[in-house]
Amino acid sequence: MTNAAWETLSDQAIGVSGVVYFLALLAHLVEWSSLRGTVPVDAAAASSTRSRAAVGAVAVATGPTEGAGSGTEESRQRVALFGRLGLLLTMIAAVVHLTSLVGRGMAADPNRVPWGNMYEFTLSGTFVVTLMYLVLYRRFALSWMAPIVVAFVLSMLMVAVIWLHSAVTPLTEALNSYWLVIHVVAAVIATGAFTLGGMTSAMWLVKNRKGDIATGPLARVPSLATLDRVSYRIHAFGFPVWTFAVLITGPIWAHEAWSSYWNWDPKEVWAFITWVVYAAYLHARSTAGWKGKNAAILALVGLATLWFNFIGINFFSTTSQHSYADSAPSVVQPVGQPVGQPVGQR
């Protein structure tokens, strides 16, 4: 296949994945609409959970048992059917999504990783969010999160296609390094984890207004204690990965590209701010015993700084040395670098 054919395949694949994500969202919305009048999932599953001797830190009912209680057998079957359908469609969308990323990399000459501009970063970041959701689906019983994750990924893909799309170009010299793979892989994994953790914290705040006795769609959501515990564990996983990306690989790569470990670049500063917020969150949880509302709010503050750094800096900053990662890939001279000198050398 030619480079143009690979690029066309990538563009078509991301369009198809968007359609499949949309169908998955519809399936999950039908699933949730069938939960009206049901009792809380934790209450409905209490007896079966006790009889099982399951020792998981996070255990809530999934599959056909969710939404059990006052609902009819027919409604329970409908919930289970559309839940499985939504999960299957999400898996298919993730595979097509990955095909789009592979196509972007293969379309470049020479072939490269698909992380050359904001469009490609956004495709990669949303794919990792979906992948982490699917990987953690059973471990943390995340079926309740399905419509939130799918709606988020679909919205970000629409933003990427409408406002961030750009043609495939070779990597700039500053990006053409093996540190790109090490740094970006760590950063996107942490971003996916923090995003899922933030969704869990946001749902804690929503359910806190109704309490654990909430009925209807919120009955599918685990108890407040479970949400708080899941959020903490996901954040605890993402933080060391983010630390590796921001405080280890980032400075090393910056020194290789710009002969300085720290340049007070806006993206560097905001990445560090994000690190400080999440460090404060984990420290407060482990030492001050912060749980519930305060912890959830602090986690959402961290998520806001994370995504502002990911996308916002490219639109609001004109001095960033990371300007090669904006929506329109072009060679932009870093501040203080002589005109005509290649990016990445000074």
TrEMBL record:
Record's InterPro entries?
A: Cyt_c_assembly (IPR002541), Cyt_c_biogenesis_CcsA (IPR017562), Cyt_c_biogenesis_CcsA/CcmC (IPR045062)
The Cytochrome c assembly protein domain covers 115-317
Q: Which domain of life is it from?
A: Bacteria
Provide the alphabetized UniProt keywords: Cytochrome c-type biogenesis, Membrane, Transmembrane, Transmembrane helix
Q: Name one GO biological process term.
A: cytochrome complex assembly
Q: How does it sit in the membrane?
A: Multi-pass membrane protein
An annotated Gene Ontology molecular function: heme binding
Q: Where is the protein localized?
A: Membrane
Q: What is its main location?
A: membrane
Annotated Gene Ontology cellular component terms: plasma membrane
TM spans, by residue?
12-30, 85-106, 118-137, 144-166, 178-206, 234-254, 269-284, 296-316
Q: Which PANTHER family does this one have?
A: CYTOCHROME B_B6 PROTEIN-RELATED, HEME EXPORTER PROTEIN C
- Name of this protein: Cytochrome c-type biogenesis protein CcsB
Give the species: Nocardioides psychrotolerans
